[in-house]
Amino acid sequence: MLEIKSQLGKLNSLTLSLAFLAIIGTFGLLAESSYTSYFYGMVELLILVYSINIITGLSGYANFGHVVFYGLGAYFVAIFITLFHPLGFIPHTFLLVIAAGGVVALIALLLGIAVLRLRGDYFAIATLGIVGVFMTTISNIKWLGEGRGLYFIGKVPLYDIKTLYSYLIIIAFAVIITTALILRARLGYGLRAIRDDEDVAEVMGVNTTKYKILAYSISAFFAGMAGGVMALFFSAAYPEYFLMGRSVEMFAAMILGGIGTLLGPLIGATIFWMIKDALLINFPYYHLIFFGIVLVALILFFPNGILGLVNRFLSKRNKVLR
Amino acid sequence: MALELFAQAAVNGLFIGFLFGLMGLGLTIIFGIMKVLNIATGAMIVLGAFIAYWMLMIFGINPLIGVIIAGAFGFIIGAFIYQSVVRRVVRAQLLSSLLALYGVMIIIENIMMNLWGTNPRSIPIFYPSINIETVAISGTRVAVSLLSIAVTILLLALLRYTYLGRIIRATVQDWRAATLMGVNVNKVYTIGFALGVAITLISGALMAFMYPFEPFAGFRFTLYAFVVVVLGTLGNPVGCLFAGVIIGLVNSFTGIYWIPAMIPAVVYLVLIITFLFMPQGIMGRRK
C-alpha cells in the first residue's frame, strides 16, 4: 500500500513538472524576444540545477566542480567548429550540442574513476581542485585564445534566441524525465542509500563506486549540453564559464527547492531566477551578499527547502510530493 | 648559472613555504577539532590582508603589529561565525556544513567588494634582502617565514602545555567522553573555530607583504590551503608546515623553470596526485 502511494506521489510530481515546463516553454516561445531571454536564463539554470541534483542531491557528494562540465561543453562546441569549419563540415548544431554532452560525460567518467574513490571532505576539495586545473590550463593555452576566449562568430549560421531556447526546452524535458527514471530505478535507491550511509550501503550490496560514477557522468552530460548551447548563444567560449559564481546559483537554487527531489529543482530554479532578476535590477552590488545570507539561512532553518515546507502541510492529508 | 638558478628557486620556495603552511594551519586546526572543512578560508585570508593594509594606510600602524590586530579580529569574527552558523551544522550531514560555509564565503567576499572595491592592493613595505654569493634571500620573506614559524610553535605550545590545550585534545579524542568529564564542548568548539580563523587571518596579513590582493583573490589561496592540509595529513599541525614547504618549492620551481601562470594548475595537480597515491598525507600512517 505504501509502495503504491509513493509511486503515485512521484507520478504527480512528474506530471506537474512536465506541465510546468511546457507552460514556460510555450510562453517563452510565443512571447517577445526580450521575455524569451528572461525565460532562457531560467531554463538554463533549471537544467544545471537538475543535473547537479543527480549527483549532489541524490548521493550527498558536494560537487563544487560542476561548472567545469558546463565550461567544457562550451569549449567542445567552440573547438569543434573552429577545427571543422575550414573543412566545410558543420553538422546540425543540435547534434553538436548532444555531442558536447557526450564528450563531457566521457571526461566525467574518467575524472570520476579518479576522484569518486574519495569521500566527503576529500571529494569536495578535489572537485575544487579540478575547477582550478581546468580554468588555469585553458586560460593559458594560446591556441584556445588564453583569457580572451575562443570565438567562432560567423562560422555557424547565427541563431535567434528562440531556436536556442527551444534547444534548452528539449534538454530540460530530457533532464526531468531522466531524473524521474533515476529516482525509480535501482540507481536512485542506491544513490540515496549512499547519502544516508555509504558503508552500510556497500555492505548491503550496493555497488557504490559504479553508481556514483554513473550519476556523476549523467549529471555531466546535461551540464555539458547546457554549456554547448551557451557557446552557440555567444558564438564563443570563455574561461569565465568556469567561474565559481554559477556554482553558487546552482547550490542556492537546489537547496531553495529541495535537495534530491524531482520537483525541488524546478521550484528552486524558477523562484531563484525571479528573485535574482529582481535583486539584480534593484541592488546590483549587494545582491550576492543577500544570496549568501539566503543560502546560509536556508541550510540552517529549512534544509529541505520549499518542497519540505509544502510536504509538511500535505503530509497531514497523507500525500507527499517528491 | 644553472646551479645558481636552482639555488635561488630553492631559497624562494623554502621561504614562501612556511607562509603556505600557516594558511593550511587554520584550516587543519578547525578540521582536526570539529571535522568541519572551512571552505571560506580564502576569503578570510584576503580579509586578514585587508585589515593589515588599512591599519597601515589609515592609522600608519606597522603591518607587523597589524598582523596581531588581524589575529584578534579573526578570533572575534571566528567566534561569531561559529555561534551563528557552524554550531547548528557541526553534527549535521557534511553537505550542510560545506554549503553553509560556502554561503559565509560569498558574504565575506561581497562585503569586502562593496566596502573596498576591486582594485588590487598590496602593502608597500620591503625589507632589504640578504645576499649570499649570488643568491638573494628576500628580507620580507624571511620575516614572514619567521613569524609563521613562531605562530605555529605558539599554537603547538598552547595545545601541549596549557589547560585549554588539554581540554581541546580531550575533545578531539572523544567529544562524548569529554562532555561526561564536564568539558563544555560547545565552548571548546567556539574557541577552536575562533583560533583557526584567527590563524587564517594572520596568514592573510602576512600574505599581504608578498602578494597583491583583491576581494575575490581568495579562491587560489583556499586551494593552496587545501593542498597543504591534505598533503600534511588532515588535522596534523606539524605536517602542515612540512607540506607548506613542499608546496612552496613546487610553486617556485614551476615559476622559474616553466610559466608563472601555470603555478596554480601544477599545485592542484599535486593535490590530485596526493589524493590518488597518498591520501593519508606525509604524516599519515598507512592502513
How would you characterize the overall build of this protein?
Chain A is mostly helical and 322 residues long. Chain A has a single domain (2-317), classed as ABC transporter involved in vitamin B12 uptake, BtuC (Orthogonal Bundle), CATH 1.10.3470. Chain A has helices spanning 2-30, 33-59, 66-84, 93-115, 120-138, 161-184, 186-196, 198-203, 208-234, 245-257, 264-282, 287-301, 305-314, and strands spanning 150-151, 236-237. In chain A, helix 1 runs antiparallel to helix 6, helix 3 (66-84) crosses helix 4 and helix 10 (245-257) runs parallel beside helix 12 (287-301). In chain A, 50% of the residues are buried. With 287 residues, chain B is mainly alpha-helical. Chain B has a domain at 23-216. A two-stranded antiparallel sheet of chain B has the order 1-2. In chain B, helix 2 packs across helix 8 and helix 9 (218-231) crosses helix 10. The model of chain B has no long low-confidence stretch (mean pLDDT 87). The chains are: A mainly alpha (322), B mainly alpha (287). At the A-B interface, helix 5, helix 10 and helix 12 of A face helix 3, helix 4, helix 9 and helix 11 of B.
